[in-house]
Fold this protein.
Amino acid sequence: MITVENLSKSFATNGNSVVALRDVSVDVQAGSLFGVVGPAGSGKSVLARCIALQERPDRGVVRLDGLNTGTLDGRRLREIRRQLGVVSSKPELIAERTIAGNIASPLEQLGVDGPQRRSRVGSLLDLVGLTPRAAQRPGELTAGQLRRVAVAKALAAAPAVLLADDPTAGIDPEEAGSVLTVLDRARSELGTTVVVTTPDAGVVRRLCDDVAVLEDGTVVERGSVLDLISNPGSRTAQALLPSIETPRSQNGRYDRAVDVVLVGFASVGALLPEAAGRFDVEFATIGGGLTRIGDTPV
């Protein structure tokens, strides 16, 4: 489990102090897919770097399974960092090495023997759907394929946590979907805890169990995605649910017009008839839309 407690971080820019994070607190459950969503400059990437132990906060604590990472240094810090895989929006791959060789490089640094290394690389190539590309070099792959290679490389040392910073940036929707599928497989098949930062609410809609919404370095909303969208007034609901507009003349024909969020197919078929019978009222649908949060229809 990752626990971020009252994290603050600022940077000096042109003689001024710029606040990137302000008293940020989030909990990421082990084995979950957690999204951090917000516009550019909201502090998403800084938070990811702090969790990855690449930045030290000015104040606050990052705990990994209860361990206060702020007390670590030297050898112990390096050991804990190995439990954290990081995927940036600009993959750092060695142009002269094959795709398999790039994925193997973290294992070579750890001294993993050849047969074990080849087995691990083979399973990761299968996970990211790039087995036929194993002998190719980075220059022969598309941007989306390179992103998947970066995910495989970050997973090579079997980290407990994978941090993906804006993993769909700069790639087309189809390739972005393939990258998100790989992140989902990392969680479901390897048991890896995945933290994704993104400005795109669609990534959260497709992928995440829980979310924190950042604005100007502050968490303005956090919780289970399905819980948050059940409140039509929440920022998460406004970002993820379909925009429905109905003519004012329609509303005037009824005693009251309300927004209702139905989660799951069973709710759609049963909730409104049950409410009509219980409260002796008539319901009429004057507008609606359908989306999917992960595998759940809403």
User: Anything to note?
Assistant: The chain has eleven helices and twelve strands. The first helix runs from residue 44 to 51. The mean pLDDT is 88. The radius of gyration is 22 Å.
